[in-house]
Design brief:
Order of helices and strands: EHEHEHHEHEHHEHEHEEHEEEEHH
Strand content: 15-25%
CATH class of the largest domain: Alpha Beta
Number of helices: 12
Number of strands: 13
Bound molecules: guanosine-5'-triphosphate
Helix content: 25-40%
CATH topology of the largest domain: Rossmann fold
CATH architecture of the largest domain: 3-Layer(aba) Sandwich
CATH superfamily of the largest domain: P-loop containing nucleotide triphosphate hydrolases
């Protein structure tokens, strides 16, 4: 089966920059096809969707608040239209209306019966200039932010540098581990959210290419390297030595500060365990799928950790600690992994 299509939810108070973010993603999708679910098409840049040939992929909801107006079955209908086995859509972005309650939106996605979609994370957009005032009027914003997998402190251009860092610090204090990014016009690197189809003109590598590049390493040695970008860091970790499943879970269940996504696959040092374990983590949502190695696969672990302001050494240290060099482990070492296995 194809990898499920990630559903990314964009939420945030009125006017914070949700539509701006959506338009930015549509313009910079790197060839990825984006299906959008919005309340109102009025402000979406239809031209950019036309350019990207995505006009078929638009699904519009009626007016009103997404989370209360739509029940799970209606939402499933929308997902069914956008995501089916032959769908050419790579990512679905749901723009919540300004006052939507993010918890019910996340539930809609996690509770969906559609096997072709997967939760792709909640992005909360905050207006840097209005944040303090919005928070006073709507103290529940703290709860909303804590559900996020990525927070954008947007409209960075509208405030002085000191106010921006103070707001970012306040948001970090609220969300703790969750990555927080200051943005202008919601310009984030789309690769934080999904993988582009093509290598952009800048010659930067896609994440899949990150996984397979760098062949200059000592046989048997884990390789970790980092690619820096304005918006995000990605750390790629490759090792032919099988991992200890418990150690890997310790990493995945307690991710370092700033990590937004972890993707790739793992091989475990467990007796009789010959499968390839595909790992997908967004924010605090971990999914693992057991599959077979195909003939062209290198039988090794390849993981990419993506986020903002990552402590590369700490990540490398923790992933190194998951490499198992002792004797082969008993099957019971897999119990923790089984909790996350998709059926
Ligand atoms: N100065 C500045 N203006 C911005 C920025 N991002 C968005 N805007 C403007 O802010 C206004 C609101 O942006 P939207 O993207 O429509 O915000 P929204 O969250 O979708 O708004 P609602 O749908 O009403 O909740 C628009 O006029 C944008 O052009 C930014 O980074 N800096």
């Amino acid at each position: 089966m194809k990898n499920p299509i990630p559903v990314v939810i964009v939420a945030g108070y009125l006017g914070s920059g949700k539509t701006t973010l959506l338009n930015h993603l549509l313009h910079n999708s790197g060839g990825a096809r984006i299906g959008v679910v919005v309340n109102d098409f009025g402000s979406i840049n239809i031209d950019s969707m036309l350019v990207a040939g995505q006009v078929d992929s638009m699904v519009s909801l009626g007016n009103g608040c997404l989370c209360c107006a739509v029940d799970v079955s209606e939402m499933d209908d929308l997902f069914a239209r956008l995501a089916h086995p032959r769908s050419e859509i790579d990512v679905i972005v749901v723009e919540a209306s300004g006052l939507a309650e993010p918890k019910s939106l996340i539930r809609l996605v996690l509770g969906s019966a559609n096997p072709h979609i997967a939760y792709g994370g909640l992005i909360e957009v905050v207006d840097a200039a209005e944040f303090a005032e919005t928070r006073e009027r709507h103290p529940e914003i703290d709860q909303h932010l804590r559900l996020a997998d990525l927070v954008l402190v947007n409209k960075a251009d509208r405030v002085a540098a000191e106010q921006l860092s103070a707001t970012v610090a306040t948001v970090r204090g609220i969300v703790e581990q969750v990555p927080v990014l200051a943005t202008a016009e919601a310009r984030i690197d789309p690769r934080l959210l999904f993988d582009p189809k093509t290598v952009p003109a800048t010659g930067q590598l896609s994440l899949d290419q990150l996984l397979i590049e760098d062949h200059h390493h000592e046989p048997g040695e884990p390789r970790t390297h980092r690619h820096l970008h304005d918006d995000y860091d990605s750390v790629s970790f490759v090792t032919p030595t099988p991992l200890h499943p418990v150690r890997l879970l310790e990493f995945l269940e307690d991710l370092p500060v700033g990590v937004f996504r972890v993707k790739g696959f793992a091989r475990f040092a467990v007796a009789g365990e010959k499968r390839k374990f595909v790992v997908h983590n967004v924010g605090r949502h971990l999914r693992i799928r057991a599959t077979r190695w195909v003939a062209s696969d290198l039988r090794e672990t390849q993981l990419v950790v993506i986020g903002t302001k990552l402590d590369v050494e700490a990540i490398r240290g923790r992933l190194d600690a998951a490499v198992h060099t002792g004797t082969v482990l008993e099957q019971q070492a897999m119990l923790g992994i089984h909790r996350y296995l998709e059926r």
